[in-house]
């Protein structure tokens, strides 16, 4: 049966923009109420598991980012060890001044045992720079990338056949015990063996293809569909194209256009017009994303006036229609008038003053 997921923010009763202090404070209050050592009700135990899971995800910056973007689907492939591995509940409860409540908490989450299985999946991010004209029309782009994959010769073991032996330091257990005496007490700490990283085995004869890494670099070429209307930050997910089953996230970055400024789905163009056109009005030709356009300049247009060309902007992402193009006028004053031209302007100025007196 598929798990009935609960929203983590609702579990902790916190807003989606809660900071780390709010998250920790909410967890502490709920832990005091529902911890099995304090509340014997079986429903409290189940509630505590949801509270722990919500805290483990929202207190981790990367897990929270994935959850905020994709919900529970963003955590697909994570084992329980991955979810809870970044939280030391024992230290956390000590910080809360609650002593031994943190002991055994993770064991209760895993039914009395801890799994050693960890997901090695790695998500990759690729920033793809595109032109404004490409997002205006939609485009297909090809990207080339390098990712690590399991070595096909040793199948990720990093060793030749028979080239793996038992770790001498931990005697194959994957763990070592550290003891420390404090007064009359001796404290023991079990940690992963640093020689074999907790595997209990070491490579004796390395694989020739991957040189003992267990991974090789592979070149990949992918076709990316850019939908009309996409903007910088738009993310396209390729499931399974990361490393070890992780995902690839292609993030768009729209390059600045030399003529147009994008504001949402509208575009703005600065256009210079001569003072005669601005004074008398007339039709002018301007650049558009899809070719040349014509627009009417009204009589007496001033610098800064905005002329609207409807439907010539960026397509609305995922729905019909487009934004608009705004042509911002800049009235140009001639600097190379001939003597005859200056005389005509003086005559015009004289007529204008006479008209004003009437």
Order of secondary-structure elements: HHHHHHHEHEEEEEEEEEEHEEEEH
The level-1 CATH class of the largest domain: Mainly Alpha
Number of strands: 15
Question: Could you name the ranges where pLDDT drops below 50 across 5 or more consecutive residues?
Answer: 106-118
Please characterize this protein's 3D structure.
Strands 10-11-15-14 form a 4-stranded mixed beta sheet. It has a 3-stranded mixed beta sheet with strand order 1-9-8. It folds into 3 domains: 8-109, Helix Hairpins; 124-163 and 204-254, Urease metallochaperone UreE, N-terminal domain (HSP40/DNAj peptide-binding domain, Sandwich), CATH 2.60.260.20; 260-357, Urease metallochaperone UreE, N-terminal domain (HSP40/DNAj peptide-binding domain, Sandwich), CATH 2.60.260.20. The N and C termini lie far apart (90 Å). The longest helix has 19 residues, at 339-357. By secondary structure, it is an alpha+beta fold. Helix 2 packs antiparallel against helix 3. It is built from 10 helices and 15 strands.
Secondary structure elements and their pairing?
Elements: H1 8-12, H2 20-34, H3 42-58, H4 61-70, H5 80-84, H6 89-95, H7 105-109, E1 124-130, H8 132-137, E2 139-150, E3 164-166, E4 175-182, E5 185-192, E6 201-203, E7 215-226, E8 235-238, E9 248-254, E10 260-263, E11 266-274, H9 275-280, E12 282-288, E13 291-297, E14 306-309, E15 325-332, H10 339-357
Parallel strand pairs: 1-9, 11-15
Antiparallel strand pairs: 2-7, 3-6, 4-5, 8-9, 10-11, 12-13, 14-15
Helix pairs in contact: 2-3
């Amino acid at each position: 049966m598929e798990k009935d997921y609960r929203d983590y923010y609702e579990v902790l009763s916190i807003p989606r923009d809660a900071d780390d202090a709010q998250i920790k404070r909410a967890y502490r209050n709920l832990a005091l109420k529902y911890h099995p050592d304090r509340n014997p009700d079986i429903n409290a135990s189940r509630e505590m598991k949801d509270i722990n899971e919500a805290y483990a995800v929202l207190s981790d910056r990367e897990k929270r980012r994935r959850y905020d973007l994709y919900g529970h689907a963003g955590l697909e492939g994570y084992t329980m060890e991955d979810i809870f591995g970044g939280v030391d509940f024992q230290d956390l409860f000590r910080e809360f001044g609650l002593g031994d409540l943190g002991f055994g908490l993770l064991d209760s989450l895993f039914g009395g045992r801890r799994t050693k299985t960890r997901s090695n999946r790695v998500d990759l991010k690729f920033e793809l720079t595109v032109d404004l004209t490409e997002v205006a029309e939609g485009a297909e782009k090809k990207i080339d990338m390098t990712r690590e994959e399991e070595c096909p010769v040793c199948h990720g073991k990093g060793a030749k056949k028979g080239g793996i032996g038992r770790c001498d330091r931990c005697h194959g257990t994957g763990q070592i015990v550290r003891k420390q005496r404090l007064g009359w007490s001796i404290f023991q700490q079990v940690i992963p063996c640093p020689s074999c990283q907790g595997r209990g085995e070491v490579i004796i004869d390395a694989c020739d293809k991957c040189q003992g890494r267990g991974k090789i670099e592979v070149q990949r070429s992918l076709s990316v569909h850019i939908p009309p209307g996409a903007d910088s930050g738009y993310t396209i997910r390729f499931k399974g194209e990361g490393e070890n089953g992780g995902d690839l996230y292609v993030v768009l970055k729209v390059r600045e256009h030399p003529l147009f400024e994008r504001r949402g789905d509208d575009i703005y163009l600065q256009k210079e017009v001569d003072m005669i056109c601005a004074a008398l009005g007339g039709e002018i030709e301007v650049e558009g994303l899809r070719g040349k356009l014509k627009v009417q300049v009204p009589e007496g247009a001033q610098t800064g006036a905005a002329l609207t060309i409807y439907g010539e902007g960026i397509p609305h992402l995922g729905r019909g229609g487009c934004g608009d193009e705004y042509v911002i006028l800049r009235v140009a004053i001639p600097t190379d008038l001939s003597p005859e031209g200056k005389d005509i302007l003086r005559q015009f100025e004289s007529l204008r003053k006479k008209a004003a007196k009437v």
